[in-house]
Please model this.
Amino acid sequence: MKIARHAEIMKLIEQYQIGTQEELVEKLNERGFKATQATVSRDIRQLRLTKVPTDSGRVKYAVSSHGSGEKTDRLMRVLKETVVSMEPAGTILVVKTAIGMGMAAATALDDALGDQIVGTIAGDDTVFCATKSVEAAEELAVILENRIRE
Model:
């Protein structure tokens, strides 16, 4: 179902100038896909869609024109420079960051490791990364530690 929904999203953003998640949810539902804003938000991240300006001055979703390698490198630099420590706590990975860098680290985590994270909550210097299981939180800590040390 997810693969079919992703394919439909790609068709929709090619065919229409869709500028909001709500518009995308509406179009998907019209085509028989049961989608919520939360589902579409995850899909947008997984498909690496971005907003680009249109000729009419609005914005629309499009496939990111940035090389994924370049973007991943930039996100990893943010994490390397901001993460102070991390510790699994049940299904949550608690990531401590430099003061004022919680949101930047959360964005980088979502973009770079979003397939292993259910969601993040960021404060000033702490990020909670929700995972699906205790094992997933522990695995995420190892993956993040390895990537930061590269």
